[in-house]
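Summary for the steering committee. One of the milestones for this cycle was to obtain a three-dimensional model of the protein with calcium ion bound, which we needed before selecting residues for the alanine scan. The sequence and ligand used are listed below.
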Amino acid sequence: MMKIARYIIISVLLLGSQRAYAGNVAIDGIATASSEYYDPITGIYKTASLAIDGDPLTNWSADGISYGWLKIELNNSYLISTIVLKSLHLPVYYGHTMDYNLYSSLDDIDWDLIGSGTIIDTPQDWFDMWHVNGKNMRYIKYEVIPNHNPTAHWAHLYEIEVYPVPEPSTCFLFGFSLLGAGLIKRRASTCRSSKV
Ligand SMILES: [Ca+2]
């Protein structure tokens, strides 16, 4: 019984580590951008790193233009399940838009288009979520397309979140621990039967 309890504890710990791995890995990455805006009123640089600082209220902004790019280098290559792009709805900019392309790459040279979209500054459309089905990537580029519409936002992003699929080795260990618990339970059942 003690061994079964020990395996259950190990399984729970492994499940916990799996959830940790599936967290937002963009936070551990490096962000660069085509340009960065310095706000003379607040004295704050809207740097690329503010799009991966985990704070939904801080943002990267291009330097006063409605196009530009933000690139994230993850600290490793990952099989990615989901990418979330977050702006922030501000009523003063209601209806302003950003048209963008989203790319991924393994080597920062060859880029694959994940998709294109539009973030609209409304209570409903201020963020986009992309499911990429375990695509392997290390670099992600958010490219805001030139837009001369008067309601075009300056290119910006408050947060980009990148979530990997659960690590296969962790799944294997988790399954192996469950298998081990099952075998011990089976052995215990056999021992009990032999005593009858
Ligand atoms: Ca932020």
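Key point for the committee: The chain is about 25% helix and 40% strand.
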